[in-house]
Amino acid sequence: MVNYQRKTLKTGDFQTVFYESGASNKEALIFLHGSGPGANGITNWKNVLEHFGENYHVIAPDLVGFGETEIPENTDLGFWQWTRLRVEQILQLMDYNGIEKGTLIGNSMGGIISLHAVMHSSDRFEKVILMGSGGAPTAVPGPTPEIVRMSGFYQNPTYEDFRNLITWFLYDESVLGDELESIIKQRYEIVMQPGYKEIYPKLFPKSPFEMQIPTSALRRMKQPMLLVHGYEDRFVPKESSLSLMEHLPNAELALLKECGHWVQIEKADRFHEILESFLKRKEQVR
């Protein structure tokens, strides 16, 4: 395992915090977290920063609106505007680090951002990995009780309620032991920072249709794509990945039993194996 570093970069009118490992390696992996309260690059991707940094240049940013990245001056943005701002944030990070082409790995909302990045700048991305991703263009089950509680977290932002919410991301929280408490504590400190209670409701779409990627766009995405989904995911049910598979022309899907929304944490070793196999394959963009 290798060590990672916390860094900052001015992107647009705000400072981006990002985590990096394996900077001397040629192939780049950009890991994008989801939209749960307190979401950030390090609690989502600590394991991959240490594991993949041995052979890859790994970057995991705190996407704008989350983590320790500075809140921009203008927060009166719609969902698509927030998404475009994050795509631009990713491209600026790539430019700063001299990354002409990279592979995107997006969890949940990070998957939606990954798909938007391919729509915006397809030539910058070799492959795409979507984990528990949103963005499905066809009917999937409506918002689950877990999603409703997540989006309304600040109505009662107690530590106890936050702890309950975080455990719901997992099929069996006992597999993490003490690591889970560390994640909960770190994310709770973030959500209680000044300004986050006000900005959090603005980060979600007014309609679930805003999150859907048009089928016309999906079928034009020629990159090799790997979809990974926890079979028992209650935040983004597996039907979302099944729907995406209907339209992506160059994709495969791995479903993992006894696994929730955080495959990379709950099934870390298997997640690493699946990604390594996919990344080492020499298949190119069609």
UniProtKB/TrEMBL annotation:
Key words of the record: Hydrolase
Native source organism of the sequence: Oceanobacillus longus
Record-level Gene Ontology MF annotations: hydrolase activity
SUPFAM superfamilies assigned: alpha/beta-Hydrolases
Chain ranges of the AB hydrolase-1 domain: 28-268
InterPro entries: AB_hydrolase_1, AB_hydrolase_fold, Epox_hydrolase-like
Protein name (record): Alpha/beta fold hydrolase
One Pfam assignment: Abhydrolase_1
PANTHER family (alphabetical): ALPHA/BETA-HYDROLASES SUPERFAMILY PROTEIN, LIPASE-RELATED
Transmembrane segments: none
